[in-house]
Specification:
This protein has about 70 residues and is mostly beta strands. The chain has no helices and five strands. It starts with 6 loop residues before the first strand and ends in an 8-residue tail after the last strand. The model has no long low-confidence stretch (mean pLDDT about 95).
């Protein structure tokens, strides 16, 4: 299960937010026992680009060998 403060990877593009599949975000809140998540997407210098409410199918847990998109 994905927990708050976990790094996650977007599995599909979110065109309205300017995000692409593979973009990395951080979970800021877990809703409904892991059914939905508030995920913050930031630039490498820490500027927030977007905070999105996403379902468990739209993200996956980041893995050790992932490379930031």
């Amino acid at each position: 299960m994905i927990a708050e403060h976990s790094s996650v990877v977007l599995t599909e593009p979110l065109l309205a937010a300017g995000l692409e599949a593979g973009d990395v975000g951080g979970v800021v809140h877990v809703h409904r026992n892991g059914q939905t998540f508030e995920v913050e997407f930031m630039t490498l210098d820490g500027t927030t680009l977007s905070v999105e409410t996403l379902t468990a199918t739209q993200i996956r847990a980041a893995r050790n060998r992932d490379i930031p998109h």
